[in-house]
Amino acid sequence: MTTDSKAHQPVYTSENFTPEDSIGRLIADVSGRLLASLDDEMGGLGITGAQWVILMRIANGCGSSAAELCRFSRYDTGSMTRMLDRLEEKGLIRRVRSCKDRRVVCLELSEAGRELYPQLPPVAIKVLNAQLKGFTRAEVELFKDFLRRMRANSDESAPSPANGDT
């Protein structure tokens, strides 16, 4: 059997699958712990880990509307609206109606959000370095490659809106 054909063999079978040690469970556990660590570190800045993620996406142009933010996250529109309301109440973001399409509300950092932004990446660096203690740079790059491949596999298997699937 060639290496290529081995890559297409199922990793999990009914004989070797244990939910508590599955890739999905491990990723979910690590993700939850990362967010909890972000929460702990963000307390001094007055935001949560989840708010940190949203602010970073807005600041980096990866979420200029609530709909875009919902697509990347597991938040429904109601939850996202409440999160954006809290960030707006804290004076960290602004909602601005699009000049091109009045139905679209664009998100941007407010002046206070732009002032806070330089303090946000160092928190992620601290949290990630703590979580990656004992890993080499090469191991981290390999791990990131594995996760990117999983994400690409997920993108390939997602229903296509062109088919009428949502």
TrEMBL record:
Domain HTH marR-type: residue ranges: 20-152
InterPro entries according to UniProt: HTH_MarR-typ, Tscrpt_reg_MarR-type_CS, WH-like_DNA-bd_sf, WH_DNA-bd_sf
Gene3D superfamilies: Winged helix-like DNA-binding domain superfamily/Winged helix DNA-binding domain (1.10.10.10)
SUPFAM superfamilies: Winged helix' DNA-binding domain (SSF46785)
Membrane-spanning residues: none
Identification of the protein by name: MarR family transcriptional regulator
Keyword vocabulary terms for this entry: DNA-binding, Transcription, Transcription regulation
Domain of life (superkingdom): Bacteria
Native source species: Geothrix limicola
One Pfam family it belongs to: MarR
